[in-house]
C-alpha cells in the first residue's frame, strides 16, 4: 500500500475572514513605506499617509481580531493551540498598531524614529498573522483504498 498525503481542510479560514485578514499586511506595509519616505524627505504629507494607512489597518485588523476571538471560543479545547497563537499575534499586531497610531498623532517631526520602528514591528506581526492564518490546513496521511 502506498501512503499519500492530502490536505485536510477542517481548519480553513472562512472566506470573509480571509478577506479581512488580507488587508492589514498591505496597509501596515504601506505605512512602513511612507514612514521610510518621510524619514528620507521630511515631507509632512508622508506622515499623513502613514496615519491614514495605520488607521485602515487598525479598522480591518480589528474585525479580523474579533473573528479570531469568536473562532477561539467556537473550537473544541483539543484544537485551540494554533488558534491561540494566531489570536495572540493578531492582538499584538493590533495593540502595537494602536500605539503606532498614537505616536503618529504627534507632530510629524516627533514621530521619528519611534513611528518607523513601530511600523516595522507591526508590519512583521501582520505578516506572521497572515502566514499563520492562511496556512491553517494540515496534511494527513492515508493509505490508498481507505475510505474517508
UniProtKB/TrEMBL annotation:
It comes from Microvirga splendida. The chain crosses the membrane at residues 49-71, 83-103, 115-134. This is DUF2231 domain-containing protein. Keywords: Membrane, Transmembrane, Transmembrane helix. It holds the Pfam family DUF2231. Residues 14-134 form the DUF2231 domain.
Amino acid at each position: 500500500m502506498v501512503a499519500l498525503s492530502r490536505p485536510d481542510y477542517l481548519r480553513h479560514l472562512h472566506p470573509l475572514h480571509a478577506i479581512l485578514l488580507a488587508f492589514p499586511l498591505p496597509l501596515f506595509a504601506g505605512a512602513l513605506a511612507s514612514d521610510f519616505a518621510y524619514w528620507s524627505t521630511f515631507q509632512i504629507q508622508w506622515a499623513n499617509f502613514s496615519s491614514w494607512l495605520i488607521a485602515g489597518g487598525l479598522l480591518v485588523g480589528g474585525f479580523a481580531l474579533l473573528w479570531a476571538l469568536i473562532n477561539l471560543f467556537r473550537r473544541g479545547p483539543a484544537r485551540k493551540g494554533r488558534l491561540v497563537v494566531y489570536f495572540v499575534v493578531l492582538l499584538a499586531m493590533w495593540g502595537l498598531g494602536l500605539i503606532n497610531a498614537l505616536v503618529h498623532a504627534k507632530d510629524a517631526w516627533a514621530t521619528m524614529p519611534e513611528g518607523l520602528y513601530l511600523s516595522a514591528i507591526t508590519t512583521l506581526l501582520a505578516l506572521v498573522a497572515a502566514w499563520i492564518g492562511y496556512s491553517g490546513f494540515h496534511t494527513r496521511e492515508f493509505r490508498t483504498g481507505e475510505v474517508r
